[in-house]
Design goal:
Number of domains: 2
Shape: globular
Number of strands: 21
Order of helices and strands: HHEEEEEEEEEEEEEEEEEEEEEH
Radius of gyration: 23 Å
Number of helices: 3
Distance between the termini: 34 Å
Length: 477
Amino acid sequence: MRGVLFALLCLSGPVLGQVQQLGDGRDGVLEVTTLSRVINAATALAADAAAGDPFVLVADSTPFSSGAVVLLLQSQWRSDGERYRVGEYSLHFVERVVGPKLELATPLNRPWRQGESQAVLVPQFTDVIVHSGTSLVAPAWNGASGGVLALLANGTVRNDGTLSANGAGFRGGAPREIGQAELGCLGEDEAGPRGAERGEGALVGGFGTTFTGRRNNDSGGGGGACAYSGGGGGAGLGEGGQGGFSGDGKRDVGGFGAAALTWAGLLFGGGGGATNGTFGRGRGGGRGGGGVFLRARTLEGAGLVVADGQEGPATDSRFGGGGGAGAGGSVVVEVVEAARCALFANGGAGGAATDNGPGGGGGGGHVSLRAGRVAECPMSVLGGLAGRVPAGDYGAGAGLPGKSSVLEVPPSSSPFPSGPGVTIQRLGCGCGSDAGAVPGLALAFGAMRRRRRERVASGRHSDGAGSTGSASPRSAR
């Protein structure tokens, strides 16, 4: 099998190549008839993996099996790493599962670090039907994995409902309870409860009960300082807005708006900063949007594909402020033929307040569409509005817009990108022909299937001795 992969042989014919990039359809037809259906499993990496390695080690391998597709995603970065790599992703076929090891049909094209990256199971459907009033949703990010709705379909995705990663990204900060006598706070690292918690961002660490005060947490908004100033908005590709003024003398000590990310990959929106309050009137920050990855032959329907940030929670009393909003996440759609869609990754609005600091708005996220033909597809990556008090914004700022892109690519060539988010087509050979570049993965996939049949014929388990893999989730019929 490895010899086949490294021979870098090419198959002619773009259609065959695209079929392999769209998956093998093993999960059949998916018909969605309920709200909030989850189709993805995700797990953190259990060890670092180097470029060229033919496997990754994961914390939980049970969702994966031979022939499954895994999406590797760098969700965050460590302080000794590279921030611009946040949002990079790569797709691989799993050859077999042995304990915590996912043996891949193609070697890794870049290093993946434990603590920064996760592995997401991507179902492979033939067709997908999402009825009006129903939805597919991303599982919420839990600090190590999740936040992604991803699917492949080698036929048509008909979406009349919603494909959503709304509020599935980085988490908002938690509010803090203070006494009425707590006045005059202004520190960027003000200890709690005088400083409220910051939102979670793309930098590993910096989030939790000990991370308080006005300073932002990378793409997470800063927490408000006493008394009752607003939380800062989270960031995506647009900056978050600053939190509003305090209640003790209208001081400018709201949480700082978060710093925008720089790479438009499959990134999560930052969480909003919290605000402190008395008598339970403090408010937390909104969650950022997660990521949606969809690849299909055709996309149609009147439904939405969304990864919006949550609004900052509002307060109903002069003894508190409004929470910072979450930022928009990412929507990445790749379609071989025609696409009709509506794609949104907007920042949430800052939390409103009655007298004191309202919350900052969340920054806009990232939307990317590549298709053979774009029939109609409105997009939106707006920054969220600043929270308000009855007299105005009271020092709160709006989030800035994110970025969107659309590209029509003829079906005679591959519509799938080959940038830092390296996809399946780049994991085979880069040979070309008059009909366009075609990946060698089709040949690798066929060899993997033959090898599996040989195992079955010889009486061995198809996933190999010691495998803990299980079948990928089956679709509703």
